[in-house]
Design a protein that fits this description.
The protein is mostly helical. Helix content is 64%, strand content 0%.
Amino acid sequence: MSHDEVQLAELVSALSHALDMTEGQPVGHSIRACWIGVQVGIDLGLNSAELTDLYYTILLKDIGCSTTAARVCQLYLTDDIMFKRKAKFLDHTAPQFLRYLIANAGMKQNLIDRFKLIIDTALQTGEISFELTDTRCHRGADIARQMRFSEAVAQGITDLDEHWDGKGLPRKKTGPAISLNARVALMAQVTDVFFASEGAAAALAEVKRRAGTWFDPQLVDALMRIGADPAFWSSLADPALQERVVAFEAIKDARPVNDDYLDDIAAAFAEVIDAKTPYTSGHSDRVALFSNMIAVELNLSDDECRHLRRAALLHDIGKLGVSNSILDKPGKLDDDEWAEIKRHPALGRAVLSRVAAFRDLAEVAGNHHERLDGKGYPVGIAGDEIDLHSRIVAVADVFDALTADRPYRKAMSPDQALAILDEMTGPALDATCVAALKAALITMEAAKAA
């Protein structure tokens, strides 16, 4: 299975939609921010190599954000996606941030507990902000390196929340000491946040207001020149903007994605997915391993095994769009929360369907919670409507979930998990796939004992 025709720009721009979900941003935020930032780069006279690094910095600016989701829920006792979305409008002055906490933190707590939470977190704002930003930026930079991007891209992600006046995070860099890619990316981010919510005039006014504090005045001047043209703003609303963004980058840096590179990107994104909650650390890797063991037992070809590993690595990408207040809840989910959980396969299918190289993987992301008896979700397909790869990943997913700690229970032993798989065989899980997993586990134990 060759993917020599796949372009890196197409792949990364598609996956950026998953990052928009975990930050609670409107569909296409990273694509629009990329277009904004690249136009600023062109105005500044950046060369092709510099524009390429800027392009990927902006598309990947939020790649470390899933690492802070659980911590945000823990600290503020709230929906992390909502909390992050609203935080994008703040300039982080103390009175504004306090009002924000009062409006959004601990909304399900009683009045006394909410008051204590707000006071405690307000007093620790500096420490908390440093912790979250440092974790997000450095983990994001590491993942970008793992995806084979340049050090300029990694540094741009590291510096994303630094401010021109030295009051940003995590290192309080000032002025030109901040990566140019980061300076442009942050301004592009704020521009799109306000444009998507309040329109072009509000976006320009907000950026101008932060000139010299958050933003490099030279970059603000460039945006003001570009923003004077109504066509610039209408392009941001163009349904074909993603295609235009991909086409632009392809002219500058038409790097194809071969199978080895595609494997690396899938593995890196699996880390983004699993970082969403501490209870899924390593989950995607293990599901990929168990899926591969089943596939080998079933004598699938090398190409099919490779495809299946990628599908397993990315099967839960839709969970980036589900709040950790639900994913990490220790008790029983209510009906609304369960409905949110049941959305994640459809969200995953939508993200992976955006890029040709992953459209076949999208079926697995969309179907891995379907059951043979038609009582699964999100669609309720049954029997032969569920493809073999989805059946394999479903067995691997259930087995790993049962043998790992979850918010609501401790991990089971492999024997206990296999007993439950036996009960699910027929109504929910494919008997051949379950038998193949058992055979593979026996083979593995025999090899360990030898």
